[in-house]
Amino acid sequence: QCMVEMSTDPNNNQMHWVGDGFPVRNLFSYDRLGQAISPFLLLDYAAPYPFQATTEQHGVGSHPHRGFETVTIAYSGEVSHRDSSGGGGTIKTGDVQWMTAASGVVHEEFHSADFAKEGGLFEMVQLWVNLPAKDKMTPPKYQGISADEIPNVTLDDEGSNLRVIAGTYQDQTGNDQKGVASTYSPVNMWDGMLKAGTTHRFFVPETHNAMLVILNGEVVVNSDQTVKANSVAVLARDGEADFEVVVNQDAKFLILTGEPLNEPIEGYGPFVMNTQAEIKQAFVDFQSGKFGEIPTEA
Ligand code: MN
């Protein structure tokens, strides 16, 4: 079975605010893990946080991205997005927004007006997925994926489950369950809940990097590595294709696997490219208005 190469320390990632709407912890980032997690770049987790009812907008206003994709999973609450390519929409509890910035967007991310008005617990994940060099300057794209489009696989009789957001998962009957997200490189993205006292075995395509993200709860991987809430186990690529998870406490998890891009990663703030010259160009293009503007509301 795959060995755990490293797991992150849950005490190392302090909560910080993205705008005034997203109280997140960064659970992994390419600036520390680099090629070992390619094509994934970073993951921010906003653990459940209570927001009071308000008529104000909570979130983050107009800002650019180029060279990658942002994937937002709403676990509780609603996020509205609008971007300069005309993409936009609101994702509700259980939905996923897959936003391909590619050649460049300016966008804004706010709690939806309905959620803000009611208030309540807000919980989400935002993951950044890198694009292959050949796709970094393709036109932007927006996929809003509603919860009812996401295959939900029952893992045991105790209530453990897994949703296939992207890629494929082979269920216990041997059927392939396919996620509807379209991706630029081969990735699997599964999320779900593992119930305490259960044991699971997950298979990773041999050519993929793989990570197990534990949002809350606690598991033991391959009998020896405890992975706690707000941390990540990176699995070594040693030709082995599976790993075992024993669940100590009900665990909310993500499994991310992907074929590494094997290309240089140069990132600065909201831009992730292959060279420093391309980063400089991104600043020039953004400052000269080439990313466009968010359309004003009709
Ligand atoms: Mn953004």
Characteristic key phrases:
298 residues, mainly beta, nine-stranded antiparallel sheet, seven-stranded antiparallel sheet
Written account of the structure:
There is one protein chain. The protein has helices spanning 30-33, 113-118, 276-287; strands spanning 4-7, 16-18, 22-29, 40-51, 59-65, 68-76, 79-83, 88-91, 96-100, 105-111, 120-130, 141-145, 152-154, 161-166, 168-170, 176-178, 187-194, 199-203, 209-221, 225-228, 231-235, 242-258, 266-268, 271-273. Strand 19 and strand 20 (225-228) form a beta hairpin. With 298 residues, the chain is mostly beta strands. The model has no long low-confidence stretch (mean pLDDT 95). Strands 1, 13, 14, 17, 18, 19, 20, 21 and 22 form a 9-stranded antiparallel sheet that branches. The chain contains 3 helices and 24 strands. Bound molecules: manganese (II) ion. Manganese (II) ion (MN) binds at residues 63, 65, 70, 107, 109.
The span between the termini is 56 Å
Stretches where pLDDT falls below 50 for ≥5 residues?
Answer: none
Count of beta strands: 24
Class from helix and strand fractions: mainly beta
Bound chemical compounds:
manganese (II) ion
Computed Rg: 19 Å
Tally of individual helices? 3
Helix percentage:
under 10%
Helix and strand sequence: EEEHEEEEEEEHEEEEEEEEEEEEEEH
How would you summarize the topology of this molecule?
Blueprint: E1 4-7, E2 16-18, E3 22-29, H1 30-33, E4 40-51, E5 59-65, E6 68-76, E7 79-83, E8 88-91, E9 96-100, E10 105-111, H2 113-118, E11 120-130, E12 141-145, E13 152-154, E14 161-166, E15 168-170, E16 176-178, E17 187-194, E18 199-203, E19 209-221, E20 225-228, E21 231-235, E22 242-258, E23 266-268, E24 271-273, H3 276-287
Antiparallel strand pairs: 1-21, 2-3, 3-4, 4-11, 5-10, 6-9, 6-11, 7-8, 7-10, 9-12, 13-14, 14-17, 15-16, 17-22, 18-22, 19-20, 19-21, 19-22, 23-24
The structure holds manganese (II) ion.
